[in-house]
Design goal:
Elements (H helix, E strand, L loop, with lengths): L3 E8 L2 E7 L7 H12 L19 E6 L8 E8 L6 E2 L8 H10 L8 E9 L4 E9 L21 E6 L14 E3 L2 E7 L3 E6 L11 H5 L2 H17 L12 E6 L7 E6 L10 H11 L18 E6 L2 E11 L5 E20 L25
Parallel strand pairs: 2-3, 4-6, 11-12, 13-14
Antiparallel strand pairs: 1-2, 1-16, 3-4, 4-5, 6-7, 7-8, 8-16, 9-10, 10-11, 12-13, 14-15, 15-16
C-alpha cells in the first residue's frame, strides 16, 4: 500500500499527526477511513498505527491554503477515537494549534522571516481565528528554547498564540449560572464549549487524581447527565455522540494560581488542561456571578491567570469586559505553548481489507479543543 506524507508533532500537551489536505482524500468519508487506519483505530492500544492509546495522542491536524487573503492557512482538527471507529470534527484543539504555524513553514505554505514568523490561522471547525508567533532564525523553524510548560519534559521554543475575539456569546445560555441536572454550573464558550462546576457541589475536593476520578462510576454518570442536559442549552443540540461540551471542576488554588481544575474531555479526565479549555475557565473566572465566585483567587491587576491542573499549571491571559448590551465579552485571550517536530516522513496505513473485527465503542476527546 502506498504511504502518506506526514509530520508527527507534539503540540502543547498533545501529540498528533499533521497532514496537508492535498495529501489526503477530498471525500470526508474516505479521509476519515484512512485516518482511522493510520492511527490504528479502533483498538485500545492502537498497536497498528501512530496513535498513543489515549485521546490526547490520537489527534490529526489537516492544513491547507485558504481562500481568504487575510488568513495564511486553514487548520482542520480531527479527533480520532481510540477504541471506536469514529473521527470527529465537532471541536477545535488549541494544543495542536501550537504546531500549525511551524508545520505551515516546514511545508512551504508560509515563508519564514529571519527572526520570528507570525502565521494567521483559521480554525476551520468553528471559523475562529488565531495568530501564532514563533522563532525562525535564518528563515528556519527553531524548536529549541527556554520555554517550559507543565506536562511536557524539558524546554522548547515559545509559540505565542493570540486568539481573535469570537462572535459567539461568552455565555451561550445568556446567564452566569444555570441549574443543570440538580447542580449549579456556569456554561461558557471562549473557543471551547465548557461547563464549569464547583468540585464541592459534587462532593469532591477537586484535588483528586485523574485516575481516582475516572474510577468513580457514579461521578461519571452524574457528569454525563450534566453534559447531556447542557448541550442543548448551549446551542450544541444532542451531544450524546460528541465530545463537547467539556466539563471543568473548580476548586481553590493549591499554590499561587487562580484556581485548581480537573477537566473531563468528556469521559476521560485530562492529565493537564487544554488551551481552549483553559481559555474558557479563565474567562469564566472573570464573569460576575459565575460559580467561580468564592472558589477562585483572582490577581489584583492584569489579565494573566494561572490555571492549576493535575500536572502543574497553565498561564493564560484573559480579559473580560461588558459588551454594548451589558453582557460579558472577551477582550483578549493569549497563551504561550511549545511544539516540537518528532518525525517527518511517510506513514503506511493498515490495509482497508484488514479492519479490526472487534465491536468498537465511541470514545475520545480533544483537550481543548469548540463546536458551534
Amino acid at each position: 500500500m502506498s504511504g502518506v506524507r506526514c509530520l508527527l508533532m507534539r503540540g502543547g500537551t498533545s501529540k498528533g499527526a499533521y497532514f496537508l489536505a492535498s495529501d489526503l482524500p477530498r471525500d470526508p468519508t474516505a479521509r476519515d477511513g484512512l485516518l482511522l487506519r493510520i492511527m490504528g483505530s479502533p483498538d485500545p492500544r492502537q498497536i497498528d498505527g501512530l496513535g498513543g492509546a489515549h485521546p490526547l495522542t490520537s489527534k490529526v491536524a489537516v492544513v491547507s491554503v485558504p481562500d481568504d487573503p487575510d488568513v495564511d492557512v486553514d487548520y482542520l482538527f480531527l479527533q480520532v477515537a481510540v477504541d471506536g471507529a469514529e473521527v470527529s470534527d465537532r471541536q477545535n484543539c488549541g494544543n495542536l494549534l501550537a504546531g500549525v504555524g511551524p508545520f505551515a513553514v516546514e511545508r512551504g505554505l508560509v515563508p519564514a522571516e529571519d527572526g520570528h514568523t507570525s502565521v494567521r490561522i483559521r480554525m476551520v471547525n468553528t471559523g475562529d481565528l488565531a495568530t501564532a508567533t514563533f522563532p525562525t532564525p535564518g528563515g528556519c523553524v527553531d524548536y529549541t528554547g527556554a520555554a517550559r510548560i507543565s506536562g511536557v519534559p524539558g524546554t522548547a521554543a515559545p509559540v505565542v498564540i493570540e486568539f481573535a475575539r469570537s462572535a459567539a456569546p461568552l455565555l451561550p445560555t445568556g446567564r452566569a449560572r444555570e441549574d443543570i441536572a440538580g447542580t449549579t454550573v456556569t456554561c461558557v464558550d471562549n473557543g471551547m464549549p465548557t461547563v464549569l462546576i464547583p468540585a464541592r457541589s459534587l462532593g469532591l475536593t477537586g484535588y483528586e487524581t485523574p485516575q481516582e476520578l475516572e474510577a468513580d462510576t457514579a461521578l461519571r454518570d452524574r457528569l454525563e447527565g450534566i453534559r447531556l442536559e447542557a448541550g442543548p442549552l448551549m446551542g450544541l443540540g444532542d451531544v450524546r455522540d460528541t465530545t463537547v461540551p467539556k466539563l471543568s471542576l473548580l476548586a481553590p488554588p493549591v499554590d499561587d494560581g487562580a484556581v485548581t481544575t480537573r477537566t473531563f474531555i468528556p469521559h476521560r479526565c485530562h492529565t493537564s488542561i487544554g488551551v481552549l479549555g483553559a481559555a474558557g475557565v479563565a474567562a469564566g473566572l472573570r464573569i460576575a456571578g459565575s460559580v467561580a465566585e468564592g472558589v477562585a483567587r483572582l490577581p489584583a491587576h492584569g489579565d494573566r491567570l494561572r490555571i492549576e491542573h493535575p500536572t502543574g499549571f497553565l498561564d493564560i491571559e484573559a480579559g473580560v469586559e461588558a459588551g454594548t448590551d451589558g453582557s460579558p465579552v472577551v477582550r483578549r485571550t493569549a497563551v504561550v505553548r511549545t511544539a516540537r517536530r518528532i518525525f517527518d516522513g511517510t506513514v503506511y496505513p493498515r490495509s482497508d481489507r484488514t479492519a479490526p473485527t472487534s465491536a468498537p465503542s465511541p470514545s475520545g476527546a480533544a483537550d481543548d479543543s469548540p463546536s458551534r
